[in-house]
Write a structure and sequence with these properties.
alpha+beta; 8 strands
Length: 143
């Protein structure tokens, strides 16, 4: 009898294959990636519009920084919500830029929406995630 075709070996190989499939599924599902970077950009210069944007905060990255520009003549509200229950609202004055920082982010989905009473939205948004929020000197080098 061939050793590979024995029932015990087949069962062990099936278990190993199943474990491999489960591991790959978890990696894809939870967006688990190994990175030696302390931070990286999720989005850059994305237009601000009525549809907003979203991102998944990666596991191991407990902070984010958002840069928002408002090129309209009216104030714009930036509303951040998460599937964890987090909610934050920031006002971006007309014709200005604002930075939004959260150094207690969870590895969940976040939504960023914009509203204005003027009805017109225009500007850009960029987002960088951090393993831990850096000091200002390190951050300047990453821009």
């Amino acid at each position: 009898m061939n050793k590979i075709s024995s029932p015990k070996v087949k069962k062990i190989l099936q278990i190993i294959a199943l474990c491999f499939v489960i591991l790959i599924s978890l990696i894809v599902l939870f967006n688990i990636t190994y990175s030696s970077k302390n931070s990286y950009r999720i989005m850059e210069n994305v237009p601000v519009d009525e549809y907003g944007t979203s991102w998944r905060q990666p596991i191991g990255y407990g902070a984010y920084k958002i840069w928002v520009s408002n090129t309209t003549n009216s104030d714009v509200q930036a509303i951040i919500t998460s599937s964890w229950g987090y909610e934050s609202t920031d006002t971006i004055p007309a014709g200005s830029k604002t930075v939004i920082i959260n150094n207690k982010a969870h590895p969940v989905m976040y939504n960023l929406n914009f509203i204005t009473e003027a009805g017109k939205l225009d500007g850009e948004v960029s987002l960088r995630v951090y393993q831990a929020y850096p000091d200002e000197e390190v951050e300047e080098q990453q821009k």
